[in-house]
Amino acid sequence: MDWLKKILGTDNPKIRPASPGGFDPKKIERVNAINDKLLADRIIFLGTPINDENAQLIVAQLLYLEDRAPRKDISFYIDSSGGSVAAAMAIYDTMKSIRPDVATVCVGQAGGMAAILAGGGRKGKRFSTAAGRFVFFRPRFGGDDALISAAERQRRRAEIKKLKRLIVEIFVRETGRPAKKILSLMINDTLLTAAEAVELGLVDDIVADKR
Predict the structure, then answer these.
(1) CATH topology for 42-206?
(2) What does DSSP say about strands 74-80 and 133-135: parallel, antiparallel, or unpaired?
(3) pLDDT digits over 16-25, tens only?
(4) Helix/strand/coil (H, E, C) string of the chain?
(5) pLDDT tens-place string over residues 79-109
(6) All structural domains of the chain with their residue ranges
């Protein structure tokens, strides 16, 4: 698949090719074995903060699974503290643009942009484990404002304002709650339990204990 090779540099969406110097071959083998099983079962897992690299891989996996079976659901398990807005939006937009329904499951935590991904699954197919936690917080730039110029501080504030507006719009769309409610959650860095996330409308149900 040429489109996949352009994205990853390989037509295998299971693992990125090794960088110069390489990785531990045994580790690569183990990761490939796990990814083989997960992809065969149409499962994608995000277990780290969101960055350009893992977003690129997840986008490729979503496209790959759509290509394999356009009408069969994809399960997306999330345990992430959040991360890059741009990288998360690449995943979110892909989830929304592909034909298969994406069922999301929060296992552990979904903070910031990861909460958007958890709420971005197909309505009726957004879940959390009983111990799942969701954290709302404002977008921020790292670093010390005192060390940058006034012009840079102004640029950052304008960018944060745009990002905050985008994030609020998405949460409003996914939860059906007013912008004022979402802004309050973000300003106070609010942590929600799984039950509270269901009440908010961010997810639809709590995964039942199968034991």
Answers:
(1) 2-enoyl-CoA Hydratase; Chain A, domain 1 (3.90.226)
(2) unpaired
(3) 443 444 556 7
(4) CHHHHHHHCCCCCCCCCCCCCCCCHHHHHHHHHHHHHHHHCCEEEECCCECHHHHHHHHHHHHHHHHHCCCCCEEEEEEECCECHHHHHHHHHHHHHCCCCEEEEEEEEEECHHHHHHHCCCCCCEEECCCCEEECCCCCCCCCHHHCCHHHHHHHHHHHHHHHHHHHHHHHHHHCCCHHHHHHHHHCCCEEEHHHHHHHCCCCEECCCCC
(5) 999 999 999 999 999 999 999 999 999 999 9
(6) 42-206
